[in-house]
Amino acid sequence: MSQADADALLQEVSAYLKSEDVAQIQAALDFSHTAHEGQLRQSGAPYVTHPIAVARILTPLHLDTHAIIAALLHDVAEDTPVTIDQIGDLFGKQVAELVDGLSKIDKLQFETKEDAQAENFRKMLMAMARDVRVILIKLADRLHNMRTLDSVSNEKSARIARETMDIYAPIANRLGLNTLYQELEDLSFKYLHPNRYSVLSKAIKVARGNRREVVSKILEAIGHRLNEHHLPAEVKGREKHLFGIYEKMQSKSLAFAQVLDIYGFRILVEDVSSCYVALGILHGLYKPFPGKFKDYIAIPKANGYQSLHTTLFGPFGTPIEVQIRTHEMNRLAESGVASHWLYKTSETQINELHQKTHQWLQTLLESLSQSGDSVEFLEHLKVDLFPDEVYVFSPKGKIFAMPRGATTVDFAYAVHTDIGNRCVASKVNSELVPLRSELRNGDRVEIITAPHTHPNPGWLSYVVTSKARSEIRHALKTMHLNESSKMGERLLTQAFTSLGLKLQDIDSPRWDKLLRDTGAKSQQEIYADIGLGRRLNMVVARQLASIGDTVSSDVLGNAVVTIQGTEGMAVQFAKCCRPIPGDPIIGVIKSGQGLVVHTHDCPTLRKGRSGDQWLDVAWDKQITRPFDVNLKLIVANQRGVLAKIAAAIADADSNIENVNFTNEGEYTAIYFTLQVVNRAHLATIMRNLRKIVEVIRIIRVKNAN
């Protein structure tokens, strides 16, 4: 163990912790040294230097005793024979839980490295949602690994740097840990693009010398003008971080010589009102760039960041970027969520920041619980970590930070899951817009809902937030399962009736045996499989009734299945014949599709008939939902005929879903897809159409695809 590093750590924690806490940290230091005895890092240094360095990264944030001890022990359970239980016995439950949240899942076997990486993130983020100190320690761990990446192979360093750039740096940014975030980005850039990093860092050093005089003049001018107005302020020059400059060059296709604003300026004042006073003074000193002012004080960023940003025309036409904030805002900007430990003042701001962090973590947990697998969750997380945001308002003026590219559906889910699941339309700035409309800064968004609607699978093609994507997928899976299982239960009830039995008489042992024999997880899964055509209802009925395991293909029972029209995905109405209530119908069970309803005279049914797939079905008498029907009209080519036809259809309370034309000499064939309630409704529409003189012939088309 490097005694100098250990002594430095103890000195740092002594500055803000009690002597008994420091004694516990000393004990953890000794324990970590003993546990890692003989282990070396790839650089050749004793392994214990790493956990000490991680703990030292955390001391400027004044993290508590448990977190510092967990940092010292974070690799013990993973790399030594010491167990989590032993750590708990020696240092307490809190430390054990923190270390457990940080430990990888090495003992499990995964098919690919991507699966293992995704599952590790999943475990870590679940622990992070319970205790944010987990991610603070993990970020410090990653920062020290990045600082010492020279000792590993180029391939490995590039992989670790990419992971850091994609996940860890954005998490640091999302938690408001600005200093840590920028260093992680710069180090990732160094190992991902070593040549570009080297060239750019040298160019910045040269520019630093060349522009020193300009920077000092600007600092002097700003300070002098603020003093003239008797505004107490601290003025600092700051150099933008390297990757930030590189990103600007990439996004705007600029050479380094064209990036004039590698230096920025920060003005720190006592209170919020002084921020706006300072802004006015600055705009009197240098002219502002139009459209380059951002007020993050009135509308803070999602990570709690607050500041005024303005860009000015400086001396010699040099753009000057200036941030104006209070000292408290500056401390929060640097330490973010860790400000809870670092500063005990301004609890209102800190509590608001923690509330935002908690909401974000809860969203992550929801996404986590509803993702199909760890890789899917990791993709959700990456989408959610993009920092580029737009700020929109609810009708009551509440501010929502949304990622750039977010739609009104994303907004609906950001308000509440139920709002998202029930949304049918949206208004932006009081005007109706399509649900796929992208949001812009300052938009006022209103969501219109209906009680019996469901998410549309098409939404997945344009939503961008992880919450919307995971909630839509979850709702669709649940809806599909529920609808299919209801249909399956009805089919199984019908099968039991045909056997002279009752489904409700089947006891639990018989169900349990069926589940064991079939490998199904629940009764609902059996019902859903029947509803989707994966299992035949009569076969399942015979298995449950212990009458036999097989059934001849011509036996499906005599009871008729009633079609209500509200079964959703478990019942499909064939597009080849488009049956409507009143048509004689028959049902066909197709594997993976559920029950497909055709008309008796459907041409498709004549192509093949498999006896064990057919069911007798009938329409429910209370159906009120609309059905699509295809009509072909032969009409004379005369002006205004389409308007007359549309009016006749509207008078019969029907909607036109689609219309197409083909020219047949002096006549035109018009193909309509209309919505009708039943055959009687269709007959009314056709009577209305026959009254139009220009309509020569009307045909219901049953073989349109």
β-strand percent reads 15-25%
CATH C-level label of the largest domain: Mainly Alpha
| Whole-number total of structural domains | 5
Distance between the termini: 76 Å
User: What's the count of strands?
Assistant: 20
Q: Could you say which structural class the secondary elements and strand pairing correspond to?
A: alpha+beta
Poorly predicted regions: 105-111, 547-559
Looking at CATH, the homologous superfamily of the largest domain is Hypothetical protein af1432
Q: What oligomerization state is this entry in? A: single chain
For the biggest β-sheet, the strand order reads 1-2-5-4-3
Provide a descriptive summary of the structure in words.
This protein has 705 residues and is an alpha+beta fold. It has a five-stranded mixed sheet. The chain is globular. The protein has five domains: 3-192, Orthogonal Bundle (Hypothetical protein af1432); 199-336, Beta Polymerase, domain 2 (2-Layer Sandwich); 388-464, Roll (Ubiquitin-like (UB roll)), CATH 3.10.20; 474-619, no CATH class; 627-701, ACT domain (Alpha-Beta Plaits, 2-Layer Sandwich). Strand 4 (308-313) and strand 5 form a beta hairpin. The N and C termini lie far apart (76 Å). The longest helix has 33 residues, at 466-498.
